[in-house]
Write a structure and sequence with these properties.
Blueprint lengths: L2 E5 L4 H12 L3 E6 L11 H7 L4 E5 L5 H11 L3 E4 L6 H6 L1 H22 L4 E7 L22 H20 L3 E6 L2 E2 L8 H13 L6 E3 L5 E2 L2 E2 H13 L5 E4 L5 E2 H10 L9 E3 L17 H6 L8 H24 L13
Parallel strand pairs: 1-2, 1-4, 2-3, 4-5, 5-6, 6-11, 7-10, 8-13
Antiparallel strand pairs: 9-12
Helix pairs in contact: 1-8, 3-5, 5-6, 7-9, 7-11
The site of NADP nicotinamide-adenine-dinucleotide phosphate has 25 residues, from helix 1 and strand 5.
């Protein structure tokens, strides 16, 4: 049985990757952070199913390098997936030092822990299309230049470079997956796609009136997270380590995503979306479009889910959530809102 170690197991990708690996008969160890409220909600169904058997959780933090070393020495995994990050671009402008510490020191601490434990452990780094900066409309591939536009993106460039550096310097199996945006019903609610589909569900059921958004003209290459975690795993099964882009090869604007999501419940987005300065960023990544041909050729990966399927999947799931909330509202346990206060 193979053993995997995942940082960021409580996040969107952590959920899908853990599910995939458990279905492949792996033993999975993941790091969680202590919070005042328990935050394992996404992986709770997996804990119920595999928690006494093949899924183990450990308190750690990417900034606590000793905990990483201790865990790796004890677990001796075959594969390490570094998914942990302060992953919200807008928040990275508000908490730049913390975001940078986790992204840079956190990643190199994990690589050092690996180097000192066993250099043959395979390592996946969650690199990002944000590193490209989005100033050109060309299809971006593994050779395209980086031009980071946020503290988050700058820290991802460091982690990307150092992952490659350890591969070249120490002959370690370290891989960068340069992933374009990927979404799902598990997506954090403050990322734009989920913010929109959450609003669509609530507006359709009459428990929210409007949704406030920022730049509607940004374009993203949006895929389904479930497809992308399979690509992460495929990268670590390849005979040689390298860097690969995962994307869909299609890009649409925030406006087009909102239009499609509202249309899925027969509503017109223009009646419900308002623009607020609050959601504009100090610097914007305007356009991202990825070229996944290297991954298709070398590791046999390609996206399976279309943007229409993704929008419908997210809207359907958020309609179900809104129905549950409506029951709470009818029992005076929750209040209807104008905009989602948690966004
Ligand atoms: P996410 O939902 O925000 O999850 C981030 C995870 O990192 C959470 O489990 C979080 O734990 C954990 N984390 C944050 N700070 C940490 C720290 N200091 N120490 C340990 N763990 C920490 O992100 P995601 O969408 O799953 O993305 C996974 C990774 O891929 C991230 O590195 C992200 O930057 C990168 N990425 C994502 C996309 C995308 O479109 N989703 C695209 C390219 C790259 P808590 O639950 O305790 O907060
Ligand atoms: N979050 C958010 N909220 N974004 C908005 C809003 C809003 O109300 N209105 C417009 N946007 C625009 C943002 O300005 C950005 O151009 C675009 O929608 C996408 O924003 P996010 O969904 O926050 O994602 P992101 O592209 O900044 O970052 C995500 O993808 C990266 C990969 O390219 C994150 O998952 C990163 O961790 C990841 O690396």
């Amino acid at each position: 049985m193979k053993v995997a170690f995942i940082t960021g197991i409580t996040g969107q990708d952590g959920y899908y990757l853990t599910k995939l690996l458990l279905e492949k008969d792996y033993i999975v160890h993941g790091t969680i952070r202590r919070a005042s409220l328990i935050n394992t909600e996404r992986i709770d169904p997996l804990i119920s199913k595999y928690g006494n058997d093949r899924l183990y959780l450990h308190y750690s933090d990417l900034l606590d390098s000793s905990s990483l070393t201790n865990l790796l020495n004890k677990i001796l995994p075959d594969e390490v997936y570094n998914l942990a990050a302060q992953s919200h671009v807008s928040v990275s402008f508000k908490n730049p030092i913390y975001t940078t510490q986790v992204g840079t020191l956190g990643s190199i601490s994990l690589l050092e822990a690996l180097r000192n434990t066993n250099k043959s452990i395979k390592f996946y780094q969650a690199s990002s299309s944000e590193m490209y900066g989005g100033a050109s409309k060309t299809k971006l591939n593994e050779k395209s230049p980086f031009d980071p536009k946020s503290p988050y993106a700058a820290s991802k460039v460091f982690a990307h470079d150092v992952t490659k550096l350890y591969r070249e310097s120490y002959d370690m199996f370290t891989v960068n997956g340069i992933l374009f945006n990927h979404e799902s019903p598990m997506r954090g609610e403050t990322f734009v796609t989920r913010k929109i589909t959450r609003a669509v569900g609530r507006i359709k059921l009459g428990i929210q009136e409007k949704v406030l958004l920022g730049n509607l003209d940004a374009f993203r290459d949006w895929g389904f997270a479930g497809d992308y975690v399979e690509g992460m795993w495929m990268m670590l099964q390849h005979h040689t380590p390298d860097d690969w882009v995962l994307a869909t090869g299609e890009s649409i604007s925030v406006k087009e995503f909102a239009k499609a999501a509202f249309e899925a419940v027969n509503l017109n987005w223009k009646d419900y979306v308002e623009v607020s300065e609050k959601y504009f960023r100090p610097n914007e990544v305007e356009y991202l479009l990825g070229d996944y041909s290297k991954a298709e050729k070398e590791i046999g990966w390609k996206p399976k889910t279309s943007i229409t399927e993704l929008v419908n999947m997210m809207v359907e799931s958020d309609l179900k959530l809104a129905k549950q909330e409506k029951v709470l509202i009818e029992n005076n346990l929750l209040k209807p809102t104008w905009d989602n206060p948690k966004s």
